[in-house]
Amino acid sequence: MLAWNLPNTLIKAVKGTRDLLPPSTEAWNRVEAVARSVFRVYNYHEIRTPILEETQLFARGVGADTDIVTKEMYTFEDRDGSSLTLRPENTASVIRSYIEHRMDQLPGVKKLYYMGPMFRRERPQKGRYRQFYQIGAEAIGSESPLVDAEVIEMVVELLSLAGLKGFKLLINSVGDKHCRPRYVETLRERLKSVAPGMCGDCQRRAESNPLRVLDCKVAADQPVIEALPSILDYLCAECGEHFAAVRRRLDDAGIEYEVTPRMVRGLDYYMRTTFEVVHGALGSQNSVLGGGRYDGLAESLGSKVPAPGIGFSIGEDRLVMSVESEQAASALDLLIAPLGEAAQKCGAAMARDFRRAGISVELAEGKLKRAMELANKVGARFALIVGDDELAAGRYALKNLTTGEQESLTAGEIAARLAPPRN
RNA sequence: GUGGGCGUAGCUCAGCUUGGUAGAGCGCCGGAUUGUGGUUCCGGUGGUCGAGGGUUCGAAUCCCUCCGCCCACCCCA
User: Fold this and answer.
1) Mapping DSSP to helix (H, G, I), strand (E, B) and coil, where does residue A233 land?
2) Whose CA is nearest the C1' atom of nucleotide B38?
3) pLDDT surpassing 90 at residue A211
4) Which nucleotide's C1' sits nearest to the alpha carbon of A127?
5) Are A191 and A64 in contact, with CB atoms under 8 Å apart?
6) CA-to-CA distance for A317 and A288, rounded, in angstroms?
7) How far is CA A164 from CA A157, A322, A395, in A?
8) Is the CB of A15 under 7 A from strand B?
């Protein structure tokens, strides 16, 4: 009954969380470095919001009857009785921060990016974890379709530079608070006659959430879904023109996309432009990123000043999964093998100097044979032998472990030989 | 929340049908080599067989319960 009184049970990572280990962490770092460099040239700046927020932020921001809020949040009562939640996504937090710090007073479009863990209590599977990581960006303070197009262009650039190949960009417009309700009503009406012939899930959705029917993957339902009215035919004049402008801009930029009127996003705050990038070989969870415009979000969080914006978030776990190739950790530059007490001291000093010069160094102990074996196993590029002869001569035996060649060099020559390329 | 698959050494797995108290390969450690790795050879380390209970003279193996992981549904990143 009391866990701490039970016999020793091995403690493991909690369900849905995982340790990211080397060499995989190198791929994560590469992806994050690419993202930061792309964000920089598009003039985005990093924002770090708390992982813990008031539960109300998500209930009101994401939508009170979305799946995320109704059944996926890690919510708990703080000691003072207030309700706190581990963030399930970050857009609501960014908008909260934007409002709280009156960023609307700053000049121009406010461009922010973030990266970090999010938490949703779902059943784990391939590409889905309870603690997962997102890289995202928000452009806030403009309703212009030019901003939509630039955000999409940036994210396509980011994915390409990260090494993602064969992905597909899907875009849609879900209208605004004037035209979308009209469409949903039409859809609901139409489904009354056709839903009975569809799969069980669709029959249920036809009542509860008609838009979800469009997202059904059951093959037999596809012809029926194709025949349903398209939201694009129901957009009001403003939304229609906005969407057309976004598409013109994407065409100008030479960006390939597919308009998918059936694409549905799961968060309530989206309006007008929505987009998604999918990639095969990710299992059933094939979406690498999702995003869209959220012009009414600030108001639903109680803001008097509007904060129209558009943003996206990349599923970093999924991106890394699809660009990661099995490669070794970055190679060690040099392993120093000192023989004896005096050499040990000299080796430590040399290691210090080399490391300050940007060379990665491992200092071995014990027998030379042992050290050489170790050098080989960890994939060191060079081994440096420091023994009595070398100490006396001031010249050390540097062995290239790839070619097997060995030469006798001074410390300065070795540093020059191993110096990393400047960038 | 609902299905399906799988849990034996650090890793990948065999053994289970037809019960007789645990194996291989790789890894790790050491040796053949006093100051030279990768190949080879030799030796060694390593498992309450996911946990608990039952059947049995005897259970990794048969039965029950539980737990964990993976994949899928739902939904999303």
Assistant:
1) helix
2) A376
3) no
4) B77
5) no
6) 9
7) 10, 7, 47
8) yes
The distance (Å) linking the CA of A266 with the C1' of B70 is 26
Q: Which nucleotide's C1' sits nearest to the alpha carbon of A14?
A: B68
**A290 Cβ nearer than 7 Å to chain B strand:** yes
Nucleotide nearest to A199 (CA to C1'): B73
Q: Taking the model in full, what pTM does it have? A: 0.91
Task: Please provide residue A155's backbone torsions phi and psi, each rounded to the nearest 5 degrees.
Answer: -75, -30
* Closest nucleotide to A122 by C1' from CA: B75
Contacting residues 297-316/A vs strand B (CB within 7 A): 313-315
The order of strands in the sheet holding A52-54 is A52-54, A83-86, A74-77
* Long-range CB contacts for residues A76-84, cutoff 8 Å, separation at least 24: A82/A54, A83/A54, A83/A55, A83/A56, A84/A52, A84/A53, A84/A54, A84/A55
The label of the residue with tokens 């059944």 reads A71
pLDDT value at residue A325: 67
Name the residues in A203-242 having a C-beta closer than 7 Å to nucleic acid strand B.
Answer: 205, 209, 212, 215-217
What's the CA gap between A347 and A110, in Å, rounded?
52
Amino acid in the structure at residue A245: A
Distance CA A13 to C1' B64 in A: 29
Protein CA at A7 to nucleotide C1' at B56, angstroms: 29
pLDDT tens digits, A3-62: 333 445 778 899 999 999 988 899 999 999 999 999 999 999 999 999 999 999 999 999
| Cα A202 to Cα A95: distance, rounded to the nearest angstrom | 34
Distance in angstroms (rounded) separating the CA atoms of residues A343 and A386: 6
Coil/strand/helix, residue A234:
coil
Whether residue A23 has a cis bond before it, omega within 30° of 0: yes
DSSP type of residue A5: G
Burial bucket for residue A237 (CB in 10 Å: 0-12, 13-18, 19+): exposed
- Residues A270, A292: Cα–Cα separation, whole Å: 6
Which tokens sit at A301?
Answer: 């969080």
Q: Residue A8: which nucleotide is closest by CA–C1'?
A: B51
